[in-house]
Amino acid sequence: MEEKKQKSINDILPLDLIQRILLRIPVKHLGRIKCVSKLWHSLISDPHFAESHLHLSLASTHACIHKKNSTEAYLVHLEEAFNDKNYKVREVSFPFKKPPPSEFRLMGSCRGFVLLHQEPHFFVVWNPLTGFSKRVSYSWLDIVHRTKGRYFKFSGNAMLYGFGYDATLDDYLVVIAWMDSNCQLLDCFSLKTNSWINLDAAVPKPLGLTEWRSRGLFLNGSIHWLPYYLEKHHSDGLLVFDLKERSFSKISLPEQLKMRDAATFLILGGFLALCSQDYVGCKTHIWVMKEYKVHSSWTLYVIPCLEFEPLCLSNDSDVVAVIYRSLKFAKYNIRKELLQRFRCPHFQLQTYNWTWCTVYTESLLPFPSNSKHKDRKKKKNAI
């Protein structure tokens, strides 16, 4: 009698249920799971699956990457660091074949991609999880014609900048606000088409650029900044630029927020948040906007620790931060209780600033390609 062939899980479970199960698996494990079967490989490789996993996954993977030198960085998976006693910080190489000839900076992250900038005119988009990288060379000549021939240098001229995603165009954008002879200029660079977009028509008059150079943060289709007036110790509120509408708006800050020093602006668990230090009470105040653009939803959390710089919310909704003075990672719950600490031996004082360190959420998202500007090689090749 012929023996019956054993059924695989693909024969037993409906396709829809398999997809739902895969969406619940942390992104770092999906690379190995793709090897289980051709069907699973196909499902996980689908760009629509990557998009759904980014938004629907119950276990997002938050990672902190900070620069060691011009070729290497340290990568800390913030959940694993607290949950695994044997966790070791990884060293990763930046996507350069050779050490870059000039200094570069970490400009932020968006949807799993980290943006690097290298003088004089290179952007590098990098997905540390998949290994994808793309160098985008931009020409300052495209914008210098509006500055009467003056040389444009990103690090010297850009006052506000941000990295975001326009879903309507499937394009990642770098927005730059800068000054030239007391004239306010606004430009946007498309990483998909490698071209500049003049946005001066969208600039509110006056924009109110300040001495405080600000890196914008992307949320809900917009880039957000916290401009700060150093001399007045004052901020007019969050400046918001909608990437789809190409328009500005403002979000008022909580009235109780005291701006004796520039507050830290961040995204916590998908919410806008502000962090300020109470040096008298030796506490850190964290204001979280629970409903987007609803002023009454600003909620205050107090952490009994100074120089507590939040990085993200854990999957259990605890606040993960770096304590600047001791350079330790720490986790507090909303009841102000210290849960855990983690010491990163490689974390140096000079590496903790916004040009050397950034937090991102890992994703499998592919980088959008333009039919007129297709890459010649597949993504994992180094630059």
UniProtKB/TrEMBL annotation:
Q: Which CDD domains match?
A: F-box_AtFBW1-like (cd22157)
- Domain F-box: where? 13-52
Q: Which Gene3D superfamilies match?
A: 1.20.1280.50
Check the record and name the Pfam families matching this protein.
F-box, FBA_1
InterPro entries in UniProt: F-box-assoc_dom_typ1, F-box-assoc_interact_dom, F-box-like_dom_sf, F-box_dom, Gal_Oxase/kelch_b-propeller, SCF_F-box_component
Spans traversing the lipid bilayer: none
Q: Which NCBIfam families match?
A: F_box_assoc_1
* Name listed for the protein in its UniProt record: F-box domain-containing protein
Q: Which organism is it from?
A: Arachis hypogaea (Peanut)
The beginning of the lineage is: Eukaryota, Viridiplantae, Streptophyta, Embryophyta, Tracheophyta
